[in-house]
Design goal:
By secondary structure, the chain is mainly beta. The protein contains no helices and 18 strands. A hairpin with a 2-residue loop joins β1 and β2. It is globular, with a radius of gyration of 21 Å.
């Protein structure tokens, strides 16, 4: 077992003795991004044995805090989109943890205009302290859909050309919205059974 800061993406854990290498048995690895402190791929359990590990077969961990595609965001932290997403079928970002910030980083998240299901650019259900900011969402059924999501923030978002709502709140309260642009939607902003939400037209 070992812990500490390891500024590499591959880890091999073994000791040398007169009979050669002895690889460590089953253990857990927890890695964090040194810049923002976010978990890198969560906790990984790996059986580092001689049959599974060698110079050419190491543990590779990806920094999920820098997404390049739609994803489930299931751990607290800040996620910064790295590129535009085009013509995506289904819900793009599903937030399943509290204390999540999704920074679209000036990028566009684009759906496929099919609306076969009630898809959303960003969906959060039963969450607390979620922030969505800095980007454009287009061509989904709903741009952003909060269900029972409270004490959260939507900032500097453009939600255009959705089938129904640019931003939709269902039983979601005590949220703050600022710098919102919503064009060519059935509803720009729709609140259903939601209270104590604050909107201002500047960020």
């Amino acid at each position: 077992n070992a812990s500490g800061n390891t500024p590499v993406y591959g880890i091999i854990d073994y000791t040398n003795d007169y009979n050669g290498r002895v690889y460590s048995s089953l253990y857990n690895i927890t890695a964090r991004n040194a810049t923002n402190g976010n978990l890198v791929y969560g906790n990984i359990t790996y059986n580092a044995t001689s049959s599974q590990n060698s110079f050419n077969n190491v543990i590779t961990m990806q920094d999920n805090s820098l997404p390049t595609a739609c994803a489930k965001l299931n751990a607290p932290g800040t996620y910064t989109l790295q590129n535009n997403i085009t013509n995506y079928f289904g819900t793009c970002f599903n937030i399943t943890a509290d204390n999540v910030t999704l920074d679209l980083n000036g990028k566009t998240v684009d759906g496929d205009d099919s609306w076969d299901d009630r898809d959303a650019g960003v969906y959060a259900r039963g969450r607390n302290n979620v922030t969505i900011k800095n980007g454009t969402i287009t061509d989904f059924y709903d741009g952003i859909y909060f269900s029972s999501t409270n004490n959260s923030f939507i900032q500097n978002i453009t939600a255009n050309s959705t089938y129904m709502n640019g931003i939709y709140f269902n039983t979601s309260s005590n949220n703050n919205l600022s710098g919102i642009t919503a064009n060519s939607n059935y509803n720009g902003l729709y609140l259903d059974n939601s209270s104590n939400n604050t909107y201002r037209d500047w960020e």
